[in-house]
Amino acid sequence: MGNMTAKVSCFARAYHYKNNSIHIFSDNIAEELLGDDYNQIEKNMSDGLDFFCPGFKGTKEEGLRVIVDKQLSPSVLGRSSFCEDKLKACVTNGCRQYVVFAAGYDTFSLRNRDKSLIVFELDCPQIIEDKMERINKARLTSAMIGVPCNLADETWKNKLLSHGYDKDKKAFGSLLGISYYLKEADFEQLIMNISEIMTEGSAICFDYPSVDESGILI
């Protein structure tokens, strides 16, 4: 998942929180983390209305809401809400390690108040570095442990272990938005690799593309 894809996912969460009184998923930190990029993405979406919504009639503000609500938010908000609900259930059952694969600009570590839960975030070095710079610039507080790595390289397991992950203790893993960018065999291999470092009682959460009755990819 590239840097821009991660930013757009973060923007979708931020826009939803900022522009709705009832939230499917409440991310009150996403806009702060994006900083100036929030306004830039908002402008780019509005300026690209003809591309995103051909034939749309209405104001740029109305068009932006259609883009976010219909195209960006559904999967991002739904999977985030589902994942964090399952995480809470696992924490209640004694899980104290949360591993966010391809973390991007996920904000759980910035919203989390449970100091007993250790949060590991895995992503490419440039995104980990950029995220830390944003956290510092916004004067936010995060106890996350960043693990710069490439999930296509199996050395990520050793890197995670070297950053304090305990494979003999229960963990919860998040793999949101990853399956769309991998071949089926590669995603299967990733799951197998994860199973090697997660003990009994651990759990993972992931989403994947499907096809509806009409054959349309959803």
TrEMBL record:
Q: Keywords in alphabetical order, please.
A: Methyltransferase, S-adenosyl-L-methionine, Transferase
| Lineage: superkingdom | Bacteria
Q: What is its EC number?
A: 2.1.1.-
How would you classify this enzyme at the top EC level? transferase
Give the signal sequence positions.
none
Output the SUPFAM superfamilies linked to this UniProt entry. S-adenosyl-L-methionine-dependent methyltransferases
Record NCBIfam families: mthyl_TIGR00027
Which family is annotated?
Answer: Belongs to the UPF0677 family.
| The protein's name | S-adenosyl-L-methionine-dependent methyltransferase
